[in-house]
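Support request from a user on the community tier.

User writes: "When I paste my structure tokens into the form, the page sometimes reloads and wipes my input. The last time it worked, I copied everything first. Here is what I submitted, just in case something in the input itself triggers the reload:"
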């Protein structure tokens, strides 16, 4: 398993980590298989979405804030319930096919690390699973 660090700079932020995943794949010997990406945090998540227009991640974050407001008489004493709820909605992992040494992503798709309770220093775990068939 490989691991890398993501430093976030805002309370809510989506950071394109596709290049970091591609680097891990390039440094491996895996040509065909699957890439499993996991975020081991309860207030940060991972998703796949459009990389071309930066307004797309901005709109996603804006709408998540409307659906899950920062304050809403939450009981969790740490004060970051909104971040916990967003993390469960967005999810902690993604699986991407690997074909001929490349990630199989659509033209406009990127992997985004989603910070919901930053700024923090975060970890991303990556496992490449080889399939020789
Ligand atoms: Zn908490």
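"...and here is what came back when it finally went through:"
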């Amino acid at each position: 398993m490989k691991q890398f660090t993501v430093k976030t700079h805002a309370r809510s932020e989506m950071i394109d980590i596709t290049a970091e995943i591609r680097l891990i794949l390039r440094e491996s010997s895996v040509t065909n298989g699957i890439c499993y990406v996991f975020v081991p945090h309860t207030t940060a998540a991972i998703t796949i979405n459009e990389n071309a227009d930066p307004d797309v991640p901005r709109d996603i974050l804006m709408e998540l804030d409307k659906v899950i407001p920062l304050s809403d008489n939450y009981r969790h004493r740490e004060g970051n319930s909104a971040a916990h709820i967003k993390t469960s909605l967005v999810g902690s992992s993604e699986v991407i096919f690997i074909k001929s040494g490349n990630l199989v992503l659509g033209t406009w798709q990127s992997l985004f690390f989603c910070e919901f309770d930053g700024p923090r220093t975060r970890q991303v775990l990556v496992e490449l699973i080889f399939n020789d068939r």
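Agent notes: The reload is a front-end session timeout and is unrelated to the input. The pocket of zinc ion is lined by residues 76, 78, 80, 84 (CB under 6 Å). The first strand starts at residue 2 and ends at 7. Escalated to web team.
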